[in-house]
Design goal:
CATH topology of the largest domain: Diaminopimelate Epimerase, Chain A, domain 1
Helix content: 10-25%
Structural class: alpha+beta
Number of helices: 4
Shape: globular
Number of strands: 18
Number of domains: 2
Radius of gyration: 18 Å
Order of helices and strands: EEHEEEHEEEEEEEHEEEHEEE
CATH class of the largest domain: Alpha Beta
CATH superfamily of the largest domain: Diaminopimelate Epimerase, Chain A, domain 1
Distance between the termini: 22 Å
Length: about 270
């Protein structure tokens, strides 16, 4: 499947005891038939009321705490197969509520943002995470500097720029992802605020690299833009794959709405 071009492989392991190893996930990521940006592995529910416990893998086999585009994909699949249009999922980051209107409009409650430096987490203490002291390039003329940081299931750093296309994110991204200030690595985004309700975004995803859409990054950018008075609490975030509607509600929840697409179905071989 895909969510705005973010390639998602859904593997339903419910009814089995199988748990994919990081090496197995990484092998699936490089095989032409199963290449993915994120893999959503569905397991038997652990908590009453949920339809599955979900492990989320990046292309390098590492585990991720959240994937908004992937969650929309599995929500639509559940609605199509069972008629449940409000499936509840559990991940390492907590419970995720969803609502399926159609294949073009699925909403995921991505939870509440966490702004504390230890929650993100950061190596160094920053009392105000609306910006932190981090730059890349010459000290007197940095290429990028002073990002906002937040955890929305996984850590994100948002750099504010005038033009997201003016930077070689494929080169800068891995340097920042692995910067020592991020002990668990970090998703790196360039955000161009075009109006109070419109943001253009490009993201280097931790463990996956450049992708056409990153739902959690869109949420992170929207929340940080509002928190720094750059934008309203409800915005359209335009990623390379298309637009996502993001709302940071008054009760501190992040709602993400967008489409999905089913590309193919089959049986995954781990041989």
């Amino acid at each position: 499947m895909n969510g705005l071009g973010n390639e998602i492989l859904v593997v339903d392991l419910r009814g089995t005891s199988k748990v994919l190893s990081e090496a197995e996930a990484a092998r699936l990521a490089v095989a032409p038939a199963t290449r993915f940006d994120q893999l959503m592995a569905l397991h038997d529910p652990r908590t009453p009321g949920t339809v599955a416990y979900v492990r989320i893998y990046n292309t390098d086999g590492s585990l991720s705490g959240a994937c908004g585009n992937g969650t929309r994909c599995i929500a639509w699949l559940e609605a199509e197969r069972t008629g449940n249009r409000d499936p509840l999922y559990e991940t390492d980051a907590g419970l995720l509520t969803t609502h399926v209107e159609s294949v073009a409009r699925i909403t995921v409650d991505m939870g509440s943002p966490r702004f504390g430096w230890q929650e993100i987490p950061l190596r160094d203490e920053f009392r105000d995470t609306r910006y932190i002291e981090l730059q890349i390039g010459p000290i007197d003329d940095p290429i990028l500097h002073s990002p906002a940081v937040v955890n929305v299931g996984n850590p994100h750093a948002i750099f504010w720029v005038d033009d997201v296309e003016a930077y070689d994110l494929g080169k800068i991204g891995p340097l920042l992802e692995n910067h020592p200030i991020f002990p668990e690595r970090c998703n790196i985004s360039l955000a161009q605020v075009r109006s109070r309700t419109d943001i253009k975004l490009r993201t280097w995803e931790r463990g996956a690299g450049l992708t056409r859409a990153c739902g959690s990054a869109a949420c992170a950018a929207a929340v940080c833009a509002s928190r720094t008075s750059r934008a309203d609490r409800k915005v359209m975030v335009h990623v390379p794959g298309g637009p996502l509607e993001i709302e940071w509600t008054a009760n501190n929840r992040i709602l993400m709405t967008g489409p999905v697409e089913l590309e193919s179905e089959g049986v995954v071989s781990l041989a």
